[in-house]
């Protein structure tokens, strides 16, 4: 593979990291375009949707290179978005040698969280706060915090075995509802609906929905519609998981 093709491949790797970390389509396309132009490519056309990336770039000698990338999973990881943004600024300031560019991209791909306790802490705070915010008691907040740890554990296991996102959402919602029922039956919680609502806030695809609306506003209609459909399907999956447990137990909130 020629060096310019390898450079374009590394740039596409950086764009893939952005997209899979939850960045909006416009940011991904702009980053790829700027990095490619920094490496001497002329016209750079980028098409990005939620499941695919296509880049066509014209080299200095007039040769046209095209590469595609299939996107299978997306999550939210602001640390990776920030790291890729920093890499993009560095490249635009002074293009890095190919090997260094590859090494920087791989370092971002494999970066570890130095404070892994932040995510479970966020689960605890968000679930407990919303349970109380929507009218629950302090006991309901504590029960919601316990249920949030069930969500966190299932999410970690699902990510480890690469479980399909919609299936994972259904299972997470069902397990959370079952845990909420158990806390109420055990006398820890009082208002089942408030406990469930506090934990549902952890599952709502807020970033995906906001990004899809932003994409449609700036003209990326296809990506926006796909993102909105994805957010809607996840909302339906949340409702289905909760209904599966509540109906089986013979009651509704």
TrEMBL record:
<feature type="transmembrane region" description="Helical">
    <location>
        <begin position="225"/>
        <end position="247"/>
    </location>
</feature>
<feature type="domain" description="Threonine/serine exporter-like N-terminal">
    <location>
        <begin position="11"/>
        <end position="246"/>
    </location>
</feature>
<dbReference type="InterPro" id="IPR050539">
    <property type="entry name" value="ThrE_Dicarb/AminoAcid_Exp"/>
</dbReference>
<keyword id="KW-0812">Transmembrane</keyword>
<keyword id="KW-1133">Transmembrane helix</keyword>
<keyword id="KW-1003">Cell membrane</keyword>
<protein>
    <submittedName>
        <fullName>Threonine/serine exporter family protein</fullName>
    </submittedName>
</protein>
<dbReference type="GO" id="GO:0022857">
    <property type="term" value="F:transmembrane transporter activity"/>
</dbReference>
<dbReference type="InterPro" id="IPR010619">
    <property type="entry name" value="ThrE-like_N"/>
</dbReference>
<feature type="transmembrane region" description="Helical">
    <location>
        <begin position="195"/>
        <end position="213"/>
    </location>
</feature>
<feature type="transmembrane region" description="Helical">
    <location>
        <begin position="119"/>
        <end position="136"/>
    </location>
</feature>
<comment type="similarity">
    <text>Belongs to the ThrE exporter (TC 2.A.79) family.</text>
</comment>
<keyword id="KW-0472">Membrane</keyword>
<dbReference type="Pfam" id="PF06738">
    <property type="entry name" value="ThrE"/>
</dbReference>
<dbReference type="GO" id="GO:0005886">
    <property type="term" value="C:plasma membrane"/>
</dbReference>
<feature type="transmembrane region" description="Helical">
    <location>
        <begin position="166"/>
        <end position="189"/>
    </location>
</feature>
<dbReference type="GO" id="GO:0015744">
    <property type="term" value="P:succinate transport"/>
</dbReference>
